[in-house]
Automatic annotation (TrEMBL), chain A:
InterPro entries: NADH_UbQ/plastoQ_OxRdtase_su6, Nuo/plastoQ_OxRdtase_6_NuoJ. Keywords: Cell membrane, Membrane, NAD, Quinone, Transmembrane, Transmembrane helix. Its EC number is 7.1.1.-. This is NADH-quinone oxidoreductase subunit J. Pfam families: Oxidored_q3. NDH-1 shuttles electrons from NADH, via FMN and iron-sulfur (Fe-S) centers, to quinones in the respiratory chain. Couples the redox reaction to proton translocation (for every two electrons transferred, four hydrogen ions are translocated across the cytoplasmic membrane), and thus conserves the redox energy in a proton gradient. Belongs to the complex I subunit 6 family. The chain crosses the membrane at residues 6-25, 32-49, 55-77, 89-115, 149-170. PANTHER family: NADH-UBIQUINONE OXIDOREDUCTASE CHAIN 6. It comes from Cohaesibacter marisflavi. It is found in: Cell membrane. It catalyses: a quinone + NADH + 5 H(+)(in) = a quinol + NAD(+) + 4 H(+)(out). One of its GO terms (cellular component) is plasma membrane.
TrEMBL record, chain B:
It is found in: Cell membrane; Membrane. PANTHER family: NADH DEHYDROGENASE SUBUNIT 1 (PTHR11432), NADH-UBIQUINONE OXIDOREDUCTASE CHAIN 1 (PTHR11432:SF3). Keywords: Cell membrane, Membrane, NAD, Quinone, Translocase, Transmembrane, Transmembrane helix, Ubiquinone. One of its GO terms (cellular component) is plasma membrane. InterPro entries: NADH_UbQ_OxRdtase_su1/FPO (IPR001694), NADH_UbQ_OxRdtase_su1_CS (IPR018086). The chain crosses the membrane at residues 12-32, 82-105, 117-138, 159-182, 202-220, 257-277, 289-310, 322-345. The lineage of its organism: Bacteria, Pseudomonadati, Pseudomonadota, Alphaproteobacteria, Hyphomicrobiales. This is NADH-quinone oxidoreductase subunit H.
């Protein structure tokens, strides 16, 4: 248990510091890299909890795909750091108010919160122990039976959002030459070569 | 205190020892994989290839290593120094970390985790960070263009690799890599009543289209020719590696070849029965599993090297078309087909 505690404090400390650096770093690319570090440490905390499937999902989806696109966009931004920091003092009071309100809400909501001792017995879906079913089986069995409609609704909403994004950004440019693979494949000697016997002095 | 030694120190020491052993063996193998790549390429072009250092040039890679290490590392003054050096480190670390879950023979694996294949997918998808970081931190146009290209390329082909893995997992019913190999002990040949011809049992035959898709996606994922657009020397000089030299450059090369070797062994595990012998009869079953594993991975690498030697480089729009418009619908269709067949034939594990 000592080892687990040591690693827990290590990962949590790195997670908190890198989360702070996400908003503290001067360079936006550094911010994204710190965000990735934060994701990694969150995944490590999931592994410590025994939720290895969630940990891998976090790495595959957030680090492997979402953060890559973030980095992709941020790298291409032409950011003027001086201009970015110019409004800092005017925005700070508003930011502080929002932060304090959020903190107060969290304290009120979670201050009196405690796990009831007979929680395990009252759970809607008793969790199988790790020996009985692995992470993936347990999550899959729950997600695809009891919560299948919620799952599919979420998928549908994402699908609509994706189509919306494509519709909003798709422009067909007519002035760009495009390769038409079907036409290229369908071409053959008969319909592309014409042999002309030219009479001398007449031209074609 | 005795408890601590028995429970933590000794298992910890064993794990470190195993990891070091794997690392050393892997690096020596990579040295020869690199040499084999150059030799095969040379043979196709009717050249001799490296043949000066050692007998038949066998020590060429080690000579290259010494030369790289003893050169002066040059960091461009306009670069972002920390990220510039972090890029190659990330590439190498991530590529080597993936090998922690690869079983090279029955039980010969450092960490036999439940979500092995997901770990491999996750870690191999991180290779792109090394390239993006290096390309951006160089503060130069060609590396930056190359970083953008390769980020889009690797993310696109990961999608089809993911779906190919899903088809295999549907047949296996487990994400553990050892289970994936063990599930290939029975299959098509067993159903036909010829259990000793075990190479027909492996998934390359029933999932042949996915085998091809996986192989081509693996080429794209590791930036190998014909998809080496990240370092297309005719247009981008040397891609994201333009500003690199000496040890950082060597680390990029090393990371690249380690992930190529990883993709070869992933193909072996997913489609070619891992360490299982090709025929389940006497002389073949005496050979230790690790030998079969290395032989099969070398076969896949030979195909990688031959593709490099005789396929011309793709154009970028062709690459994207292949990934999104051909492979993605094809692998999606195959996932549905395999799931349907398994369900209606009652073969689902």
């Amino acid at each position: 248990m000592i080892l687990q505690s040591v690693f827990f404090y290590l990962f949590s400390a790195v997670l908190l510091v890198s989360a702070l650096m996400v908003i503290g770093a001067r360079n936006p690319v550094h911010s994204v890299l710190f965000l990735i570090l934060a994701f990694f440490n969150a995944a490590a905390l999931f592994v410590l909890l025994g939720a290895e499937f969630l940990a891998m999902l976090l790495v595959v989806v957030y680090v492997g795909a979402v953060a890559v696109l973030f980095l992709f966009i941020v790298m291409m931004l032409d950011v003027d750091f001086v201009e970015l920091r110019a409004g800092f003092l005017t925005y700070m009071p508003v930011g502080l108010v929002v932060g304090v309100v959020l903190l107060a809400e969290l304290l009120i909501a979670l201050g009196g919160w405690a796990l009831s001792p007979d929680l395990a017995a009252n759970l809607g879906e008793p969790m199988p122990t790790l020996a009985e079913a692995s992470n993936i089986e347990a999550i899959g069995a729950l997600l695809y039976t009891k919560y299948v409609f919620y799952f599919q609704t979420a998928a549908l909403i994402l699908f609509v959002a994706m189509i919306g994004a494509i519709v909003l950004t798709l422009h067909h440019r007519r002035d760009v030459q495009r390769q038409n693979i079907e036409r290229q494949v369908a071409r053959n000697a008969e319909n592309s070569i014409e042999i002309v016997n030219v009479e001398p002095g007449n031209g074609i | 205190m005795n408890d601590f030694v028995a429970n933590w120190l000794i298992p910890g020491a064993i794990m470190v020892g195993q990891s070091l052993l794997l690392l050393v063996v892997l690096l020596v193998v990579i040295a020869y994989v690199l040499l084999a790549d150059r030799k095969i390429w040379a043979a196709v072009q009717m050249r001799r290839g490296p043949n000066v250092v050692g007998p038949f040039g066998l020590l060429q890679s080690f000579a290259d290593l010494l030369k790289f290490v003893f050169k002066e590392p040059i960091i461009p003054s306009g670069s972002n120094k920390v990220i510039f050096l972090l890029g190659p480190l990330v590439t190498v670390t991530v590529a080597l970390a993936a090998w922690a879950v690869v079983p090279v023979a029955d039980g010969w694996v450092i960490s036999d985790i439940n979500v092995g294949i997901l770990y491999l997918l996750a870690v191999s998808s991180l290779g792109v960070y090394g390239i993006i970081m290096g390309g951006w931190a160089s503060n130069s146009k060609y590396p930056f263009l190359s970083a953008l290209r390769s980020a889009a390329q690797m993310v696109s082909y990961e999608v089809s690799i993911g779906f190919v893995i899903v088809t295999v997992l549907l047949c296996v019913g487990s994400l553990n890599l050892t289970d994936i190999v063990m599930a290939q002990q029975s299959g098509l040949a067993t159903k036909l009543g010829m259990p000793s011809i075990s190479f027909l049992n492996w998934y390359w035959l029933p999932l042949f289209p996915m085998f091809v898709v996986f192989f081509i996606s693996a080429l794209a994922e590791t930036n190998r020719p014909p998809f080496d657009l990240a370092e297309a020397e005719s247009e981008l000089v040397a891609g994201f590696m333009v500003e690199y030299g000496s040890t950082p450059y060597m680390m990029y090369m090393l990371g690249e070849y380690v992930s190529i070797a990883l993709m070869c062994s992933m193909t072996t595990i997913l489609f070619m029965g891992g360490w299982l012998p090709p025929l389940d009869i006497a002389p073949f079953t005496w050979v230790p599993g690790v030998v079969w594993f290395i032989l099969k991975s070398s076969l896949v690498f030979f195909m990688f090297a031959m593709v490099k030697a005789f396929v011309p480089r793709y154009r970028y729009d062709q690459l994207m078309r292949l990934g999104w418009k051909v492979f993605l619908p094809m692998s999606l269709f195959y996932v549905v087909l395999v799931a349907g067949v398994l369900q209606f034939a009652g073969w689902a594990p």
